[in-house]
Amino acid sequence: MFGENACSLIRELDRNRGSLPPYNNEILGEVEKEICHLIQQNEADDFEAHEDSRVGEAVDYTATIRTRHAIIQRNLRCLLAYHYNRLRCLRTMRWEFGSILPPDIKANLSHSETNWFSKYSSMLATYMRSIGDDGGVNLTIDLNPPKALYIEVKCLVDYGQYELSDGSLVLLKESNRYFLPRAECEDLIRQGVFQHIVN
Amino acid sequence: MNPEEVEFLGEKQLISVIPTFNSSTIHLVSGDIGPFRASLPVNVPLWVAVNLKQQRKCKIQPPDWMDVERLELLKEAEKTSRNFVKMPSEHYMIEGKLLLSVAADDISRADEVRTIIKDIWDIRMSKLRSSVNTLIMGKSYGNVDNLTIMEINSMRPLIPHAMDQIHRMKMERSRFGTPSQSVSLALLNSSNVASTFK
Amino acid sequence: MDINIIENTENPQSDESEYEEIAHTAAEVLQLMEEAWLNEKFAPEILPHKYDIVECLLGQVSHVEENLSNVHNDDLRRSLHQMELDRLRYLVSSYLRLRLEKIERFVYFILKQEEERSQKGEENYLNDNELNFAKCYGQSLDQHFTDQLQFWPGNIPAEWKNQLIVPNIYSYVFMKAKNEIEGVMINHVNEEEEVVDLKTGSQILISYNNVGHLIRNNQSCLI
Prior knowledge:
The complex is a heterotrimer of chains A (199), B (198) and C (223). Chain A has 199 residues and is mainly alpha-helical. Chain A has six helices and five strands. In chain A, helix 1 packs antiparallel against helix 2 (25-55), helix 1 packs parallel to helix 3 and helix 2 runs antiparallel to helix 3 (62-97). The longest helix of chain A is centred in the middle third of the chain and has 36 residues, at 62-97. The model of chain A has no long low-confidence stretch (mean pLDDT 89). The radius of gyration of chain B is 23 Å and the shape is elongated. Chain B has helices at residues 3-10, 46-54, 68-80, 92-102, 110-137, 149-154, 158-176, 190-197, and strands at residues 14-19, 26-28, 31-33, 42-45, 58-61, 141-143. The two termini of chain B are 29 Å apart. With 198 residues, chain B is mainly alpha-helical. Chain C has a three-stranded antiparallel sheet. Chain C has a two-stranded antiparallel sheet with strand order 1-2. Classes of the chains: A mainly alpha (199), B mainly alpha (198), C alpha+beta (223). Chains in contact: A-B, A-C, B-C. The interface between A and C is large, with 39 and 41 residues. Strand 6 of chain B pairs antiparallel with strand 6 (203-207) of chain C, so a sheet runs across the interface. Chain B: Its main location: nucleus. Chain B: Keywords: DNA replication, Nucleus.
């Protein structure tokens, strides 16, 4: 059925919200073919209609032409929505990953999308550099309101001496509790030395 | 707004602390704090108070309202009033949550305080739910006087969104005489495009 | 710590906008930034930019950073300043991000509006750098869409320019009156207008189109 392929592109977007599936060359080709085909048919019918009216025959092509036109418009809309929403997704990824995309995502882009991504990257960088008088502001950090610098942790092992980034030393003993800067704790929590105590 | 953002707003609220250290005035952009003299109370923003308390550098003086008797009265008033009672603090939930979590030892009968604050919140939320109908069915605007930022935020996105939809339907009816499905959709908006295909 | 910033006070009743110089303390500027942040967060449309406030606060940030490098052996002072810097940076960045998101989402509509404002000699809502960004972004979309439609027999349609994504100015917002406001006109669909007076501090849930001007001229704020 007409419009079916274009519609499946949109369904694909909807199924993959927030991620970027491979650029669907195959289906896009089908949709393009369908559009070209419908435009040709409409032009042919339009020509016929003129011929007919010249020789005085009255075949009405209006309904057919309008229907085809509606399908063309529908397809166009889907094509644009498909491409636009992929760009929006790419945009989000620029904010998440920075100007260099992970290879598995890069592989899913069309040539034109890769171009757009680097253009977007550079216009964003230009804008961020322009903020304030002090060489700019990086807007891709400080994404969440800052939280308390100190957190309470429980030490799970006898770790011994640990040097904080300001040079001071702490003796970490099993089952003792400490108030330490969050940034200092994150590694040790991952290593299983600390357990974060949440009230 | 997400809860962290609401908390961020509430953290500028001033709280009285009793420092255990001495220090001259600190010139913060948000205003000067101090000078700090050990055992003399001084007002600081909540985020500073929490930080000092975590480093064991102060005792917190709970706000006047954070007291079982006062809160019981407030709870009674909230129960009996049809309208929302004005809260003693625009950020009572945030103050309650943060202070009770880092400074429970400085608050007398902390567990009871915690429970009553929660009760008041619950009463207000249930009042809010039952007044939603009047809010939506009534006029083109609704009064939300005396609701705190956090309470207002709990209505999002549902209530404003419902109002949007009702407004949309009214507009359609006035345009075509009858409700219609043909809401003008922006071409590129995928959520709209996608939902017409479902 | 007194600083001067120039504030553009718009008068909705007249076409002339007056400039007023008001001295603000840093704390007041911070308060204004917070308000601008919330307004931008909840208003469906992009609001007139507040770069005067942004730049002022960023100046404060640099100033504090500089002073911090001279502070030694005072962990407490340092950590409090550091924490505040984080708060300021978050506020300013978040504000600018919100605007950038709107600029991208409504790019063609915003460019059209800015064009109209320039023609009428009105103040732009975007600052120059934002406007540059908007133009680049719009062009990059045009280019991308045109590339995709190369296969089209005949003239390539530019549908995306005819049916713009526009903000829904009828969306409902929570608003707080900063001072007493008389005669707020509320439009009802199909019904007569209603006039409401608002007391200082009163809070209402209302369709944005009725109160947008009160936000832009600072009589009210969104919450």
